[in-house]
Amino acid sequence: MRLAIIDRDNCQPRKCALECIKFCPGVRMGDETVVIDKKSGKPAISEELCTGCGICTKKCPFDAIFIVNLPEELKSDMIHTFGENAFRLFRLPYPQEKSVTGIIGQNGIGKTTIVKILSGDLIPNFGELGGGSKEQVIEYFSGVQFHDYFTQLYDGNMKAIHKPQYVDHLPKVVKGEVRSLLEKADEKGNLEEIIKDLELEHTIDRSIDEISGGELQRVAIAATILRDGDIYILDEPSSYLDVRQRLKVAGIIRDLAREKRVLVVEHDLIVLDYLADYINMMYGRVRSYGIVSHPSTVRQGINVYLGGYMRDENVKFRAEAMKFEVRPPSVAWEGETLLKFTDIHKSYEHFDLEVKGGEIRKGEVLGILGPNATGKTTFVKVLAGEEVPEKGEMDKDVLVSYKPQYIKSSSDRTVFELLSKVTDLSSGFYTSEISKPFELDELLGRQIAELSGGELQKVAIAECLGRDADIYLLDEPSAYLDVEQRLSTAKTIRRIMEKRKATGIIVDHDILFIDYISDRLMVFEGEPGVKGASRSIRGMREGMNAFLKDVNVTFRRDPESGRPRANKPNSQKDKAQKSKGEYYYG
Ligand code: ADP
Ligand code: SF4
Ligand code: SF4
Questions:
Q1: Which is the most buried residue in 165, 275, 327, 384, by most CB within 10 A?
Q2: pTM listed for this prediction
Q3: Per-residue pLDDT tens digits for 538-561
């Protein structure tokens, strides 16, 4: 089966002299393989006439065309297309009763499309343009599990409740106090219990437009689980939550699945691993087509995903495996020190911060773990001289480049305008170290306000790394990035720090990401918004051990992939590791 896909965001017929039409051999011989669609003004390719020669793909200056050959058997598995030469989705994951089904896959591979179909917001058309009726869906699935699922969904006998991905957008669509919002959602009468479980006591009487991203996430989760549904779909429940909150939310979602079907899209593999019973992987080509794998157990599914090769479907979906190496502790430091600082004390009217003295090294990545609002950014501002502490001294002045946790997307500038202000976009360093790994070329012409969460995050990281600085402070760079992007971001940041002999300070709550990116670790603790304290900077093993002890969770390494996995509370391994005081990898 041949698919011709035109990426409508990238296709710019006014700027390209229509190379795809000019050079298509079919068109030259007089047939209508590629024509201009009158409505959109963009090309349309006839998949029947296209021979798959690939000339248009090479000639298009904006990488807007893909021609893909897929096994013929998949034809009958086509679930949906958004239009001619548009994205195609193959197969659906089946949300098992009384279980958590996880979906893992790159951004743009079709996860949201699946969420919309399974919640009844989008009626699939099975590739037939203009098609897509509820009757057709029920008939298509006759004789398989989905028949009952869609019959009940469309008859109103199965209620789907959905937590959207971008919680930052919530204040634009809902107004008022958190309490009144949650009271409206409370169909089961357990509001007080959920407020306690999700630690919303300080948030409940505030207005939705003045709470933080982490609070918005917990409010959105509360609004979802308070409702009385049959299938609960949670799209990225972990963004902006700290580690303890992530594991807590994972526990709450697991409890929900004792009675109900739950479907979760999640890129934090530790959370997904802790949360899901089954996993469906998604592969294909971003913005072109997405195929849903058969379900597997969570451990196996994540290992296969990281390995990049699916044996049972004989599909290699990534050139190389992602490996988590057990790095020896970095004892013998022979490099240069960037900055030394003594114990720091900084206080604001309602906030107190204590930081243990230490040194920061050139070329290293320092991971920071700890709850939100415990003074991590204040600490770096003190290092940069932007804030004056009551106590504490640095041995030199340093320049800091900062990416905040919440990124403003309201700018009417283009990505090009934003990035060209901070860096020379024609330099070799920018091209090879920043633009290529973050695939920024294809975003340059887009407006900031139109970018998806993941695209915006990549641009914000690139903007931060593009500046000249001694310290690069990135606050939650993993938010909205998929697994592949998280791991490539980690590699890119490490490489840039080494090359620039600068220091990366990375605040993040994805433990796997922190494990992958950091040379050493700094752990913050305290009462969010009231007081914070940091322990001294330590090696990975020691730092993680201290942090996980605070959170009261033990981790082991998976023997196959080397990735860290959270032990289930009170499991044999959990008890044995706790009794030895070995919270990290036993
Ligand atoms: P994910 O949730 O995995 O990021 P999506 O399901 O949102 O992926 O989208 C997959 C692809 O489908 C997108 O990259 C886009 O090209 C296409 N797409 C999504 N929604 C629409 C739509 N309403 N019209 C046209 N194309 C769409
Ligand atoms: Fe131009 Fe490429 Fe679009 Fe064809 S697909 S019109 S070559 S931008
Ligand atoms: Fe024409 Fe070849 Fe492109 Fe098909 S792949 S549209 S035949 S240039």
A1: 275
A2: 0.89
A3: 998 889 998 999 888 999 988 888
